[in-house]
């Protein structure tokens, strides 16, 4: 498969030693029937003589038949097959396709969601394909059945993955997540973990989590595992497993600080949201020289932060804006509001060929008037959306606005500004960003607005309950798990 088609199909094939290990985990007897719901080229089903695979891609299905001549390979959509088959299996294993919600759509998605809902798992519109694959595969197991799958590390933090863990814990005696820090697929930015469950038809009140530095083949899932109460996972850690990569003492101290009456969550003193979406950045962001050439009045131009790379380390000042002007950066937003009467120079700019192309873009043609960019606000701070070593919080002293590549922070409590600025670079708040945010891949930490609202600012002096050396060790641990080099 080409890299493009592999990405679209979610088809990155599993290293042989991982496939062999997962099959060993689930097959207990030579008479067991093994299911792989997305068998690819057959590297799971070739390891057990009584296997059935389902594969949508014709070329891959043909390769699977050649590799596993004793297996039965169905070519087609797994969800359609699963909804109609009467077959049941002792075990299932595989590496389901990881197709994000943007491309996991249409009738295949609708069919998958209907099937999962009938089995008792309701996913949000943001669910990627792999989670419904696991639910549908589990629904084809016999009582006592087992499954073992490669899963994205998103299972440790993604909101859309929570219904899967809810479903599994309500239907299996054991649910075991094996987190592996070393990349299972070195060519991908996406990290992958392993998921094992056994005892279909039962239930459990705890999740098991094993955190390994690297994968090693084994006949059974790791014996060493933290036992996580499902209620604690749901209620204390917001349905996230990533905090359990830290020692229990650190987690408990973090909870103690977060619960202190003088501690503050970021969302308690500020509203945090993405910046505006112009719909046509090249058209709406003008260089000073362009604005002068078109004679656009300064009243219709507003300085803007186009991306986080443009931000200085701690504060954006009018000197920063002046520097952008001297560099002739495209840093002026054409801000027209809903004005019906516009200067002739502005009308001439709107009627250029670029303007005609801009008004046909989706965002522009669905708003009235098309040239009125909505949600243009002047925040008190800018917060980086995606960051390397740590997120940046930059005070907005230049009255600039920002695009949706940066978060805008607007304080509800002005008296909190000094405390936030003072605490932002402390190890505890850095650790809070790691716990409440999530890795995006490639060493990047991503903070969605809802995640940013949960960042904890402790009262001065309280973190003595959690010494800085322990906080810094925990910080190194979390950064290591997202493959970030924090020595920079």
Please describe the topology of this protein.
Blueprint: H1 3-9, H2 16-26, E1 34-36, E2 51-55, H3 58-67, E3 72-75, H4 78-84, E4 89-94, H5 106-119, H6 130-138, E5 141-152, H7 162-169, E6 174-180, E7 192-198, E8 206-212, E9 226-229, H8 230-235, H9 248-259, E10 264-265, H10 266-269, E11 270-274, H11 281-284, E12 285-286, H12 288-294, E13 301-305, E14 315-316, H13 318-326, E15 332-334, H14 344-350, H15 353-359, H16 362-365, E16 381-384, E17 386-387, E18 393-396, E19 401-402, E20 406-411, H17 417-423, H18 427-436, E21 438-441, E22 444-446, H19 449-452, E23 456-457, H20 468-481
Parallel strand pairs: 1-2, 1-4, 2-3, 4-5, 6-8, 13-19, 14-18
Antiparallel strand pairs: 5-7, 6-7, 8-9, 10-23, 11-20, 12-15, 13-15, 16-18, 16-20, 17-22, 21-22
Helix pairs in contact: 4-5, 5-6, 18-20
Task: Describe this structure as you would to a colleague.
The chain is of the alpha/beta class. The chain folds into 2 domains: 3-245, Rossmann fold (3-Layer(aba) Sandwich); 247-286 and 297-333 and 375-488, Alpha-Beta Complex (Adenine-n6-DNA-methyltransferase TaqI, Chain A, domain 2), CATH 3.90.220. The chain contains 20 helices and 23 strands. Strands 3-2-1-4-5-7-6-8-9 form a 9-stranded mixed sheet, with helices on both faces. It has a 5-stranded mixed sheet with strand order 11-20-16-18-14. Strands 12-15-13-19 form a 4-stranded mixed sheet. Helix 3 links the parallel strand 2 and strand 3. Helix 4 packs parallel to helix 5 (106-119) and helix 18 packs parallel to helix 20 (468-481). The model is unreliable at 1-11 (pLDDT under 50).
């Amino acid at each position: 498969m080409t890299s493009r088609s592999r990405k679209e199909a979610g088809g990155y094939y599993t290293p042989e030693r991982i496939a062999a290990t997962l099959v060993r985990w689930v097959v207990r007897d030579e008479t067991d029937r093994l299911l792989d719901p997305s068998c690819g080229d057959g590297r799971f089903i070739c390891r057990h003589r009584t296997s059935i695979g389902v594969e949508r891609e014709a070329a891959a299905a043909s390769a699977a038949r050649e590799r596993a001549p004793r297996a039965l390979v169905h070519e087609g959509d797994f969800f359609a097959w699963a909804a109609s088959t009467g077959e049941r299996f002792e075990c299932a294993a595989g590496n389901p396709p990881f197709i994000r919600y943007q491309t996991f759509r249409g009738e295949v998605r609708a069919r998958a969601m209907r099937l999962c809902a009938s089995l008792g798992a309701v996913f949000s519109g943001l669910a990627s394909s792999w989670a419904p694959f696991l639910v549908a595969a589990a629904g084809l197991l016999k009582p006592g059945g087992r499954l073992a799958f490669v899963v994205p590390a998103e299972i440790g933090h993604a909101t859309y993955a929570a219904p899967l863990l809810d479903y599994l814990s309500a239907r299996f005696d054991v649910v075991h997540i094996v987190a592996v820090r070393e990349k299972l697929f070195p060519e991908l930015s996406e990290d992958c973990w392993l998921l094992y469950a056994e005892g279909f038809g039962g239930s459990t009140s705890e999740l098991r989590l094993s955190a390994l530095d690297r994968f090693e083949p084994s006949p059974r899932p790791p014996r060493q595992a933290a036992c996580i109460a499902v209620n604690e996972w749901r209620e204390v850690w917001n349905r996230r497993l990533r905090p359990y990569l830290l020692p229990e003492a650190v987690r408990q101290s973090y909870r103690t600080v977060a619960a202190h009456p003088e501690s503050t969550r970021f969302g308690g003193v500020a509203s945090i949201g993405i910046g505006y979406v112009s719909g046509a950045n090249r058209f709406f962001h003008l260089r000073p020289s362009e604005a002068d050439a078109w004679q656009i009045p300064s009243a219709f131009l507003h300085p803007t932060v186009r991306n986080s790379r443009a931000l200085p380390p701690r504060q954006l000042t009018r000197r920063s804006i002046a520097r952008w002007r001297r560099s002739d950066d495209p840093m002026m937003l054409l801000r027209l509001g809903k004005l019906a009467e516009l200067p002739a120079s502005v009308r001439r700019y709107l009627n250029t060929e670029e303007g005609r192309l801009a008004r046909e873009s989706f965002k522009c043609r669905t708003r009235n008037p098309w040239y009125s960019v909505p949600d243009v606000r002047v925040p008190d701070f800018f917060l980086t959306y995606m960051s390397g070593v740590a997120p940046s919080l930059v005070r907005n002293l230049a009255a600039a606005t920002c695009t949706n590549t940066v978060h805008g922070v607007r304080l509800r409590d002005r008296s909190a500004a000094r405390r936030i600025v003072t605490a932002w670079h402390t190890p505890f708040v850095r650790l809070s960003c790691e716990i409440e945010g999530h890795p995006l891949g490639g060493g990047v930490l991503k903070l969605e607005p809802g995640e940013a609202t949960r960042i904890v600012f402790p009262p001065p002096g309280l973190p003595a309950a959690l010494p800085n050396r322990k906080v810094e060790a925990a910080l190194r641990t979390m950064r290591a798990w997202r493959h970030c080099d924090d020595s920079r």
